[in-house]
Amino acid sequence: MSKKKQTDEKHTEQQNAKHAQLESYRSDGRGQAMTTNQGVKISEDEFSLKAGERGPTLMEDFHFREKMTHFDHERIPERVVHARGFGVHGQFELYESMAQYTKADFLQRPGEKTDVFVRFSTVAGSRGSAETVRDVRGFATKFYTKTGNFDLVGNNMPVFFMQDAIKFPDFIHALKPEPHNEMPQAASAHDTFWDYIANNQESAHMVMWVMSDRAIPRSFRMMEGFGVHAFRFVNDNGEAHFVKFHWKPLLGVHSLIWKEAQRVAGLDPDYNRRDLWENIEEGNFPAFELGVQILPEKDEFKFDFDILDATKIWPEENIPVQIIGKMTLNRNVDNVFAETEQVAFHVGNVVPGIDFTNDPLLQGRLFSYTDTQLIRLGGPNFHEIPINRPICPFHNNQRDGYGRRTIDVGQVAYQNNSLANNDPHTVTDSHGGYVHYQEKVEGNKIRARGSSFKDHFTQATLFWNSMSPVEKQHIKDAFSFELGKVKSPSVRTQVLDMFDHVSHDLINTVAANLGMTIPVRKNNTPPEQLYTKTSPALSMENTTKLPTTLRAAVIIADQYCEKSLAFVTDNLNQAGIQPIIISEHLGPITGAGEQTRAAQDSFLTSAAAVFDAIVVIGGANMNPNFATQSKHFIQEGYDQYKPIIALAAGTTLVDELTISEQPGIVTYAQLPNNAEPIITAISERRFWNRPLL
């Protein structure tokens, strides 16, 4: 074959490949149902959604907003960077049909699996900030359903700082680094944040969550997720129920303590994403069960709080969480930018069977998310980026704009039309068209908030009452640290006055720690005694405690006891605990029988803070430097209340620290018969009742 012929054939192959690539983006709306860019079929394209036939257009009309916004942005705008986050792929499997409550297609058939993409994130910091800061964590899930994309855009806390979205810009301005000196980064311990809190007291409940250990999760794999808002389920008969969504981690809900979080931020700013990435790579797939709280519409006003108030929970004792499915995260991204950074979530991405409520925070988010993606991703075609594309086809008359990938064919890009037989056409509810729930809306145009939204402190006290003594102490410490960084005496005093409505015990301790005068009480009876209800689901002390995927530092020295090391690593692996060999240096360590084990980490490159437990084996040749560094490592773990197991020569190090008899310390001078006490201690994770050194 001639060189020219080879060149021509190669060119033809390249042309065919390019043609196939372009063909995959061709879109022909002839004969097709009209859909939104998320693939949801459209039932009406002539009229916007209004409050009555002659009433104002409603903000929740996601089809109108998508259509108009796309048109408004058909000339290319610029794109900006988004916040710190990390994403992963997975699948959701339905346990039981929800057909009684919703016609959402992916919630109909038990056993059916739906692909998902989840993005975990911190809220306050920039992309380069540490991941173990005290902050809310985002927990956003995109379901790629057969009838369009459904985005459950939530947090690891079930409430938020405000009741109305119009306050969100003010809150973020107060939370972010102060503009005159651009400090502090990814932190709420400063004047403007606490000034906002003291002067916007609807935030009281959320602040209690943020000052708790929930704000410093041990892992993305070990935190709950909440949809925050009340949504609606709508079934085939047009009947509606209010619903709230919950993600429950199978590994339980676990957190770092503050001293660990600070230490880890310096050792590994990528701690949470590294933990997620490595466990998925090793086949330790995180799993979360999806729960729903379902409330009949007739019960909307039966509680002592407004169910549409985003600063309130629906207590699980009153409205139980029904587990309906499980999400398993099983595949890391191929490219962080292309997937994690370009994924575009939106609370307005719903499918037939899921609708909105009049929660004023939710209503504002329905506008804000599209607007955010437009500037962040450079234009109105962000839905065409591969990570955002629905798996079902989509057809409409939206055209052009920055980053357009679809190659639209034909001369028609409008409706109504005759040249294309009025395609793409709308479809009825019975054919899958999205029809908004017909809720009767009437009233005067008014900028106000209902009186049912005015109680800002009762559920904050409920949260406090539900905490264990250790959790309460951590909240006191958090308030003391945060307010200790506030320079304004006036702001500190205002905050103390505000949270005196939540708990006198809390404020008495914080005031003493700050050297401040305890506020004059308007009522001598503590709020926690006036309102005594508790909710066990709020305390992490009641969570699942499993050893699975925990990390244990196994400290060895030259001439280590090989039987002890084999016993420990074999039993830890069997229990699903990951043993990491630590020593004075990296590389091979020689045992008493001339076997060698490679140290995976060293005292210089690691610390107790990044492990869940410490196992000390030592060795016959423990030099003074090894002994000193080992004891420092052990003491740090002890002060973080972690389980410490000592075998063979390692018992001498624990004895020298005089901690052998303390809770959570398991020692064996001789090789034990079974590892059950070791696994039990590691599963417990923390031993709060031990005295600190």
TrEMBL record:
Its EC number is 1.11.1.6. It catalyses: 2 H2O2 = O2 + 2 H2O. Residues 35-423 form the Catalase core domain. Residues 1-13 have a biased composition (Basic and acidic residues). Pfam families: Catalase, Catalase-rel, Catalase_C. Keywords: Heme, Hydrogen peroxide, Iron, Metal-binding, Oxidoreductase, Peroxidase. Its cofactor is heme. One of its GO terms (molecular function) is catalase activity. Belongs to the catalase family. HPII subfamily. This is Catalase. It comes from Paenibacillus yanchengensis.
